[in-house]
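Predict structure. Chain length: 182.
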Amino acid sequence: MSDKQNAIDVVDSFLESDKKILLLKGYDNDAKVMVSLMCLNEFFDRGIIRTSNMSKFSGFIFDAFHKDLLPRNVNSTTNYKLGKMIVNISSYVTNTKRNPKGNDSTFTLYHPVQTVLDNEKLYNNLIEELEKNQSKKIIIITTNEWSIDNWEIENYVDEVYFYSVENDNPDIMSNLRSNKAI
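Prediction complete.
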């Protein structure tokens, strides 16, 4: 079985379970974003994407799918069609008056989160937001695993999955090893 299919099976199993929060770790950011959104697209028609970087978010989606699925500049007052889903994209780092809380028919995807994991104030704000989030399912995607020092976030989730790409993308693993990142 491919690494991608294994990840799809894990994410689908999480979405079918009673668990609420999944932390998705791994070295291939594009693969994690693609699998998460593909699976969410099968289970939900509405969702919330919370990002730390509004100006780069459409680039994250382009990198994962190699298609312009979102306009270059996204804003929090517009809903966007992504697959069959309608999503609202907003920043969880900046305070906005309209932070969506979700409901039992929505998901919330947090991506990327590594920048807040080592910043105590931002980290505490994220944990507080997770506790108030009312979406049926929450997926948190990290990036740059090798640079994260604080993994306390694992104590606030129901499941942790490390999306290995050892078989599907050995080049990324080789590059990380040769650069002594892992």
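Summary: The two ends are 24 Å apart (CA to CA).
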